[in-house]
Design a protein that fits this description.
This protein is mainly beta. The chain contains seven helices and 22 strands. Strand 20 and strand 21 form a beta hairpin.
Amino acid sequence: MRIPFVGVGLLVLVGGGAGVAGAQGWVTDARRIGLGGLGLDQGSLRRYNAAYRAVPGRAGQRGRPKLTIPIPLGLIQFFHDHPLSNIKNDPAFNHDSAGFNPVELLNTFLNPPLFLEVKKAPTPTNDVVFGIGKDSLRLNLGLTAQLVPEDQFGIGGSSRPLDPGLSIKGVRVGVMGWVHDDVGFQLGDKLLGFLRDSVPADTNTRYNVLGDALLEVGFAPTVAYAGRIAGDSTTGLYVGGAFHYYVGLAYVRVNGDGGFTTGDSIFSGPSPVKPDARGLTQYSKFGNSFGHGVGGDLGIAVVTGPIELGVGVNDIGATITWPDTRRDSAFYRDSSYSRPLLPNHIETKTKLPVSYLVNLAYTVGKTTLGADVLNSGRGTTVHVGGEQRVGVIVLRGGVARDQRKRIELGWGGGLRFGGLGLDVGFWTHTNSLSNQRGITMATSLSIY
């Protein structure tokens, strides 16, 4: 009886941790980490604002490097502690070892060791108490119960890993690669009460988890324009837009509902627990008919002396039509398995999330302050930061509010000698199975 309850509980904690990781994102630039996640470089602004392809870079004024190379001190420490020659016998990865800790393994996954963890977030450690009676079961997870999410949690968003193109007098022709992923879970009320609030298990009751996932990839031939329509290089109004013809290469969508139902008695009887699951999978695999759709980006940027303001919106109206979709269903209940037949080769539609960025920067002398509001498809993040130059030294600081509305801090600094710079940044995070923050130290080399 305990196996289904506890097994689903571990799945919930793993999924909850994944939601945490996705909420904050992963930045490899120590400068940006020191600014609390604020992006001031042209590359990050162009991703979400088509007008920034025409805004002249002011690298000398704002210290924006041409190239940033992360220094992976965390990997050096990680492989020192876990040498590859002994990886099969390492207690951290060998589940047969008495020292194996799946929670620590999950925390390593949620915090890839590229940078140093100068303060690891402690994982709640406490006794898990089972209350077992003649016909009753109650579970108390102690402090760990705080990690069980009450609301829907998940990871996802849209990205553009490739965007090559050719520009002539503001007109750009290119091909953009795009990826959209979205994974979410939701606990049923009964299971939530059992795991988080230590509500006793009840008879003839269903405990379940709802889940859905979507992944689609493709490319998009693109025609875009970006240019200055008023002013000059110091004070100007810039606009940009792009038209995309989206070609979908493959997609898969899964919807599921899994759990178990208790019987007339918690422990007695031939089958006190009846597991069940149902799922629907829709997909168009690689080599099948292409998906297709149209959409666009719009952006505007204003530069007036020391002030820079931009607003960009991406993937407007981007609905992908998949003309030949296969559907598979499955149903399982108490050792009975079936696959109901559904109509196949049907047309389905998916929609890329509209993403947007609003950014503001103010530069006077050797001081730069900035802020942005970003939504890449699964919640809004807010960043505020600034940097101050004192000779060859740069001091930075920032604060962010992540998608879960938690506050995180960043601070750091750097040294710049001619065309080279060495930067260090510190970043608080909750990317672990803990409600307490950890601190990451990032280092990178910048080429100006």
